[in-house]
């Protein structure tokens, strides 16, 4: 495979070999008569074959105090209280289920959301802090909003072409 370095601010061109048709944003035609399937690409456009829509709920973990050692010397700790809050989304933008809050101050919280049979939220509970020594604080949670998230199904041919592109570009 050949690789050409792009100018600053422009995408690099990389040759990708494939036996399957590749959907591209720009194709300059065949550039290698020996392989016959090599195309020079300026960019790759993702192709999705299907998607599923799910509900993602957003919660705020209300302001609470955590205790932090601000001393540079571990032999003489200086513990101070710090107020903070977190956010929690039941699903990320790719449709992956989330089980922990966002990380703040070096810790997260395990989260548990319960739904009734109609899919309505019954409760959202915040577990004790993970990642802090001698501090197992929790937070009250407040519902913020819900939104529809599309779980994408990727075109396998395109994923393979993108993988080869990344491998060639990062050599």
Describe this structure in words.
A four-stranded antiparallel β-sheet has the order 1-2-4-3, covered by helices on one side. Strands 6-5-9 form a three-stranded antiparallel β-sheet. It has a two-stranded antiparallel ribbon with strand order 7-8. The protein is mainly β. The chain has one helix at about 155-170, and strands at about 5, 15, 25-30, 40, 50-70, 80-90, 110-115, 120-125, 140-155. Strand 1 (about 5) and strand 2 form a beta hairpin. The chain folds into two domains: about 5-45 and about 155-170, no CATH class; about 50-150, no CATH class. It contains one helix and nine strands. The longest helix has 14 residues, at about 155-170.
Residues in β-strands, percent: 35-45%
Mean pLDDT, rounded to whole units? 77
Number of strands: 9
Distance between the termini: 10 Å
Contiguous uncertain segments of 5+ residues: 1-6, 10-18, 21-35
Overall outline = flat
Brief rundown of the structure:
This protein is mainly β. Helix content is 8%, strand content 42%.
Features:
42% strand; 171 residues; four-stranded antiparallel beta sheet; three-stranded antiparallel beta sheet; 1 helix; mainly beta
Blueprint of the fold:
Elements: E1 3-4, E2 13-16, E3 27-30, E4 39-41, E5 48-69, E6 79-89, E7 111-115, E8 121-126, E9 141-154, H1 156-169
Antiparallel strand pairs: 1-2, 2-4, 3-4, 5-6, 5-9, 7-8
